[in-house]
Write a structure and sequence with these properties.
Blueprint lengths: L1 E5 L2 H18 L4 E4 L6 H14 L7 E4 L1 E3 L10 H8 L11 E2 L8 H14 L5 E4 L21 E4 L2 H7 L12 E4 L2 H5 L3 E6 L5 H9 L17 E6 L4 H4 L1
Bound molecules: 2-phosphoglycolic acid (PGA).
């Protein structure tokens, strides 16, 4: 695991965006794995800027997203499809037909998980998977559990995640209780992984990721086994590792 410690959110966002930019320039038809949440917003803003101003070209890029809330339609302003469209896809020259997320409205959950796994496989997997990390150590919506999940599955969100995400909804009761998520196995099958984290609230999770045992109790800890994982983390998020 390669750890890049930075001072703050902006530095983290810039470094992460440079890595994604290099991936796109080296392999213009690459498959990028995207994440949602507050953490990647600055990274996406840099990519948008470079696409508009420097001609960074996403026209051949394909993308897969980590997860989607179950029960939210694509046009719901808290769905991850909506988030991606607003913060990235509508602002860069990616072909939207080549951007994929689980379908939160699919009635047959098992069929949707199977479809999404087959789709990712048919694309050859992600060349680079971007990840945030939850306060509880989740990656995607792989919540702390008794065992690691392999492929895409329907997950019941923990109280801690519902609490953390309720800031984006009118009231806590509006946060969906279930989501579709790539499993840890799918995330691990990405050729490269790039995890970004900032702020004190992430310090415990970062400690688990870097210094704890590999356990589904801290889902991100599985990344210790990934052969090409870069973590960009700011001083605050790193504070429990560096003392
Ligand atoms: P955040 O979420 O970027 O909004 O902190 C990260 C995550 O839950 O994976």
């Amino acid at each position: 695991m390669r750890v890049i410690q930075v001072k703050n959110y902006d530095e983290m966002s810039l470094k992460a965006a440079h890595i994604i930019r290099a991936q796109v320039e080296l392999k213009p038809d690459c498959v990028l794995g995207f994440a949602t949440g507050s953490t990647p917003l600055g990274t996406y803003a840099n990519l948008v800027k470079w696409c508009k101003e420097d001609g960074l070209d996403f026209s051949q890029v394909k993308s897969v997203n980590l997860d989607e809330y179950k029960g939210l339609p694509k046009d719901h302003d808290q769905s991850y499809a909506y988030f991606m469209d607003k913060n990235l896809f509508s602002q860069i020259n990616i072909d939207k037909a080549n951007t994929y997320l689980p379908d939160g409205m699919c009635v047959d959950g098992d069929a949707e998980c199977k479809r999404y796994d087959e789709l990712i496989k048919s694309l050859g997997g992600a060349d680079l998977q971007l990840l945030g990390i939850g306060n509880n150590g989740h990656i995607g919506f792989n919540e702390p559990a008794d065992c690691f999940q392999n492929g895409t599955y329907c997950v019941e969100l923990t109280e801690s995640t519902i609490e953390a995400n309720s800031r984006l909804f009118e009231k806590k009761e509006d946060v969906p209780r279930f989501a579709f998520s790539m499993g840890s196995g799918t995330i691990m099958s990405a050729k490269r992984v790039l995890l970004i984290a900032n702020g004190k609230a992430k310090a415990e999770a970062i400690k688990g990721l870097m210094a704890g045992p590999i356990t589904p109790g801290c889902p991100a800890s599985i990344l210790q086994m990934h052969p090409d994982c870069t973590v960009i983390v700011d001083d605050e998020a790193m504070s429990l590792v560096t003392g």
